[in-house]
Amino acid sequence: MALVRWEPVRELTTLQNEMNRLFSTFFDNPAGGGGANGSSLRRWVPAMDLVETEDHFVLKADLPGLDANDVNIEVEDNVLTVSGERKVEHETQREGFYRVERASGAFRRSLTLPEGVALDDIAASFDKGVLEIRIPKPEERKPRKVSIAVGGASQPAIEGSESES
Q1: CA–CA separation, 44 vs 84, rounded Å?
Q2: Shortest CA distance to 55 belongs to which of 114, 118, 119, 138?
Q3: Tens digit of pLDDT for each residue in 24-72?
Q4: Phi, psi of 20 (to 5 degrees)
Q5: Are 138 and 117 in contact (CB under 8 A)?
Q6: What is the 3-state secondary structure (H, E, C) of 41-72?
Q7: 18 neighbors 65 (Cβ within 8 angstroms)
Q8: Phi, psi dihedral angles at 22 (to 5 degrees)
Q9: Maximum distance among all alpha carbons in the chain?
Q10: Which long-range contacts (CB under 8 A, 24 or more apart) does 51-55 make?
């Protein structure tokens, strides 16, 4: 009998891969999505990058095949939501074989904004299938300086706190 060294990290990686495969299979194949040839429609989630610059957060989303009218951008309760839909472009045929690998359907992605963002200054542009949203960073709150009275300098009494003599 040969001794085999147990590597717990490898076991965790294997478990993680199996769980990712399970969830990917479950969420990428919506119910009733099976086609006549055994293919199924995949749920589409566009890739997004969030980059921090000196005075903005820049959100970029790859939305190939869409134009600006197909995309909705909303801000509610400091949550920025990008949503839209990519339509299925193939037709059904009685003869021939189709292989559909491009995902389609509705998508919705949300991002919580930091407190103090000027919502009216958020700007979006769409060019060559890439949506870019520029979110201005909130101004940093500066600490308030409190003056300290030295010695017996009298200060005005705070209303309601004077003691009777």
Answers
A1: 11
A2: 138
A3: 766 655 444 444 444 445 567 888 999 999 889 999 999 988 888 989 9
A4: -60, -45
A5: yes
A6: CCCCCCCEEEEECCCEEEEEEECCCCCHHHEE
A7: no
A8: -60, -50
A9: 104
A10: 52/137, 55/136, 55/137
Q: What is the pLDDT of residues 72-127, one digit of tens each?
A: 999 998 899 999 988 876 656 666 656 666 777 888 999 999 888 888 999 999 99
The position carrying tokens 């995309």 is: 71
Tokens representing 136 are 């201005």
CA distance 73 to 78: 13
Look at the block and give the residue holding tokens 């969030």: 50
pLDDT in tens, 138-152: 887 667 788 888 876
What is the dihedral angle through the alpha carbons of 97, 100, 101, 107, rounded to the nearest 10 degrees?
A: -170
Contact by Cβ (8 Å): 83, 71:
yes
pTM exceeding 0.70: no
In the chain, DSSP finds a helix count (H) and a strand count (E) of 1, 7
